[in-house]
Structure formats: C-alpha cells, structure tokens
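User: Can you help me understand a structure? I only have the sequence.
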Amino acid sequence: MQISIVAVIDIVTALKEGTLDGNAYVIDNTGPLASPAGLRITNVPGVHNADGSQATEAVLNWIPVGIGGLPTTLPRSYRHRFISKPWNDRKADIRPRVRQHDKVRYYDAALLSAACEVLKPDNPDAAASLPPVLTRIAGPAVEQGVLYPALYGSPDLLTDGWYWSATVDTAKVGRHDYTMEVALYRPIQGNGETVWEPQLFTLTCGIQITSAPGVNGFTGSFAPGLLPVTPCSTVVAGDAI
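Assistant: Let's start by predicting it. Here is the structure, written out as tokens:
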C-alpha cells in the first residue's frame, strides 16, 4: 500500500518562532481507513494472511510543502516561464542564491508568490515561497526496524534530485514514533549579496500500525481465490453492473 504524507509548513511563522510545533501539519491518504490515532500520526493498515503471516508491506512517501507556496500540481516548468534574462547575467538573474552542503548556487527557477508574482531574491517575504526540504527520517521507528527509509530519484533540484520514502514492517503492530528533519531557508545579507541559508528543524511524528486479515476483493473470501472470477448468472452481456 502506498501512503502519501504531506507535511504542510507555515514557513514564515516557523522561522520567526524557531520551531515547527504548532506550525506544521501532517496530512495523509489513510484518513478514511481509520480514525486519527493522535497528533501527526499516520494510520498504517497492516494486512496478514489467514495463517497469521505478514501479507504485505506499506510504503510511505513524504512531501513537504509551504502554506504560501505554489500548488504542487503545477508543472515543474511553470517557474521557468518567468525567467526572461540569460542565466549567465548575474545582475539580471532573478533566481535566489541558496547554500547547500557548504556551497552557494542559484536556485533553478524564480521565486513566485501564491499569486504567481515574481519575488526579488532579497525580499524577506519570499521565505514562504522557497520550498522546505526534508533532509532526514530518523527516530525510534527507524532504530527499531519498523521504518526503512531511503532516498529515491526526484526532479527537484533543491533536494539534489532525491526524495524520501520508506517501507514499513506492518508485522510490528502498534504506535511507533519517528522524526522528520526539515530545512527551511531564510535570506542572509552579506558582502552586498543575499544568500538563502538553511535552518534545520525537527518535527516529531508517528505511525499507528493496525492489523487486519487480507480479503479477496473479488470473492470476499480470506482465501486467495482464482482469476478470472466466474460472471454472476444474473448479469447479461451488455447490461450495466
């Protein structure tokens, strides 16, 4: 089962207060499957076979976004439409300069507000528009072998082309906590230039693994069953089911 976890962050307030507590919200696609188990808790429906053996693993995918950022449904090339000057012209370049791994480089596109207005790199209000970056998944759930996080390919250059995902050992039923380490960027003035520096924050989250027997979706039986399923005798060819 693929579970998407969206961490929605109020970047401006988090930078001002120096914490993600009260400024970050976790949304996932397991809400309809079970009632929320607690604050920033993701429900992971575990499935076992009739003999009690583990039937499947769950996969978690994390997507951090800013409240004031552009919708993630926009094509990645959308930001590039607002760059009209050559990228080798430093004075005319409207892209912000960001620090990563002790190196400063240009962000791959212009910063846009939620209203799609181009923001200058030295505008402090642009902090809400520079996407947060998830840098690490750690904590007890990883140390105890419940979560197995890994980096996978992504087209986002700010994350160096990687995003975080993890498989879950659904045989370990119960509540397991983990931490997300997130980098938020703030503008720092120096030597007549503005460089966006990362500031690391930690957010404590958790997963609640439940257990249920696997059910054949075609037959309603706990047995695997065979496909194709024999058509119901009450259904005539051409009729709607």
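Now, to help you interpret it: The chain has one domain: 2-213. The first helix runs from residue 11 to 17. Let me know which part you'd like to focus on.
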